[in-house]
């Protein structure tokens, strides 16, 4: 399998070459040349596999330049850090299914992709004797997943900026208690926007970027999308078996359109009917919901909410969907995305909206509804939802009909204890592993919001 750009102006590259790439050089996103549609027989064979075996089979459709035994080893190693045998168990709660994606080291779904990416990075870097320095900024939730992905890995150092004292205690501890020598937590005396601005300006400094081989692990990375497809297959098999049915629906709390794009590709691979529709759930940052319901993809101001990992306006993976939506027409994709960059809005026709709605349903869920859902769901079932998962559950229930409903649980409630406790009216009990973090030694550097100071720090520590 070769890879191409959604804007059509990049020569074909191999899977290995996609692993360290963010954007394609023509400004597009990297996609596989072809998304295979599986036969009935192929699908039934996948059904019998355990999580790691399933991952191997799916990856093999997309990876032709890594030997099977190596790929197998990478997968095994990546998922050893998970606390449960099934990696992403599906549990029936009330009359819906919850796909629990939070059993990795940082208790949220990004571990599924980043644990894999970290092992893959190390393997490929050792093969070519190269080194990289990963740089990123976090508002709290996602930095830890990147750190845990690469902690202790050879030929990799990671620098993660977070706003000092402006992330929740649990989230800060999840990062700063990682004391591996290749991990650098930088607490910036400023806001998350300051952190992002510093990271951006370091990446724009091409000489600095080249000299230290700066790399990102953001959500447009193809290998991350690929790793996320596995649990859609997994959940489809578990629930269709239990319900003895062919078609199901899946509700996905969405921010950057990464997770749900993996679901969309799975829908294509499984044939149109099996995943009847994906339910795109947003919080009050509802650009994607407006797109599905009215064809209005126009940027508004980001509103901070209690589901912060979905506080996104411009969804970085949206271009990939546009590409497939226009039947892999790179010229059209380029035109539309360039227009969007200028006008900050795309308006889709009624006919186009109808076509979108063949694959997606969508609802936006506000903060009040999110808190209410956490409370009511607990009252009815005894199951505690995190705020992101609650957005997905609420949206899913709005469309509940004859199709079995799977809701993706993207984080464990203990990652957002303040919000969840507020909704429930009592303090939730933290898992022992998280309690323990409070007693561990920490390692972080406090720096002013000054690009030059950060630059000097990285220059000193980079590998
Ligand atoms: C990142 C994240 C999301 C959104 O995922 P996207 O791939 O950006 O759509 C939802 N919930 C949690 C807890 C997350 O960390």
TrEMBL record:
Molecular function GO labels: threonine synthase activity
Signal peptide boundaries: none
Domain of life of the native organism: Bacteria
Record-listed N6-(pyridoxal phosphate)lysine modification sites: 110
Similarity comment text for this entry: Belongs to the threonine synthase family.
A Gene Ontology biological process term: threonine biosynthetic process
Protein name (database record): Threonine synthase
Residue stretches making up the Tryptophan synthase beta chain-like PALP domain: 93-344
Cofactor(s) the protein requires to work: pyridoxal 5'-phosphate
Residue ranges annotated for the Threonine synthase N-terminal domain, each copy included: 2-79
Transmembrane portions of the chain: none
Pfam families in UniProt: PALP, THR4_C, Thr_synth_N
Source organism of this protein record: Thermodesulfobacterium geofontis (strain OPF15)
EC annotation from Swiss-Prot or TrEMBL: 4.2.3.1
Keyword annotations: Lyase, Pyridoxal phosphate
